[in-house]
Amino acid sequence: MPTDVKTIISILEEHGYEAYAVGGCVRDSLLGKEPKDWDITTSAKPEQVKELFHKTLDTGIQHGTVTVMMHHVGYEVTTYRIDGKYEDGRHPKEVIFTPSLEEDLKRRDFTINAMAYSDRTGIVDKFHGMEDLQTKVIRCVGIATERFLEDALRILRAVRFSAQLGFQIDQETMVAVTELAPTLKKISRERIQTELDKLLLSPHPDRVIMLEKTGLLQEIFADCEKEENSAGNAMEELAEKLGKTEPDHYLRWSLFLSYVPYRRLLKSLKFDNKTIHICEKYKAFQAEQLQKDKPYLRRLIVKIGKDIFEGYLRYREILGNVDTETFLEVQQNWKEIVENGDCLSIRELAVNGKDLKEAGVESGVRMGEILNALFDMVLEDASANRRETLLEEVKKLL
Ligand code: ATP
Ligand code: MG
Description:
The structure is a single chain. By secondary structure, the protein is an alpha+beta fold. The chain contains 21 helices and eleven strands. Among the domains are: 1-130, Beta Polymerase, domain 2, CATH 3.30.460.10; 285-339, no CATH class; 346-397, no CATH class. The longest helix has 16 residues, at 324-339. It is elongated, with a radius of gyration of 28 Å. The model has no long low-confidence stretch (mean pLDDT 95). The chain binds adenosine-5'-triphosphate and magnesium ion. Residues 24, 36-37 line the site of magnesium ion. Magnesium ion is lined by residues 24, 36-37.
């Protein structure tokens, strides 16, 4: 445990409270992974926690969570609690504080997430979490269907953890996933987005296949218009391709988009505009017959966008619907276009509006037409992007 976590736990213990590191950090430590953050669970009530530390934030005080600041890092310290019904998948509507660590561990989703640790006590593992870590199993604490009925987000979390850790989902838990897939409707789109994003960017993104096999996919996109031309083996193919990619957000989501037969699914998941723009763009050009010649390529780069073109090529490489020879030449030419600084926007023309005015072009529609004509000329022949050449052309056009 980091020194600051030890300090927080010691201070709580010195004042007569129980305190443990809990959940994800214990799981990750046991797996030999660096935990992202350290959560602490304690018998102390929020007010009591606040009395003991100089700097605290009331981040989730209504759920019993106080953030203790130490050396500019925040540690969530949460009072032992029993949860009422969950509202938004993360926060229960009402919480009841309890003096029992076991009660607190019992409310947690999976056995591997329900372990606590302190230097004084060692590992507290009431639900065989260690065993499930060793045998690589995701298993609900208690009766799976009950746990999923309390909070449907856990259904997606099961699939997500299985992809992040490369674990199998225990059979009873798996049956409950499939049976209760329709209850996912209750979960906010933002939460679904977060879980799918973690799944897709995990070390085992091919587990997306489970979304289809369990019926989760159909539930998640129930409100989206279905695309007609979906191949039968699409998800298998997607899984295979995802497995070959680096964990790049845009690449993996654009592949997802290209294989999952629903329209506007990124929008329905409330994704940011940048993600929607990039992934939709890639998808729109997924079947483009790539040619190697530079005039064509420059025009394509303009259509797709210079800053996302590299990502587009990678996407096409993974899609694998371009013959290798052409693809290599396209890559080489794209590299040269960038290195030579070929003009790829009207702004980069060697003449501007002022120059054209001086050459006798009226501003307005005509100006726009002439700029476009010049731009088209340099897309065709990059070497034409010289002041004299362009002004010469303006004369001809006039
Ligand atoms: P991550 O690496 O994604 O942060 P994590 O296990 O730390 O994984 P968090 O969402 O940060 O997951 O939650 C911390 C802990 O809180 C979990 O380990 C689990 O014990 C508990 N928990 C979180 N969400 C739920 C939930 N929906 N139902 C029950 N317990 C939950
Ligand atoms: Mg966490």
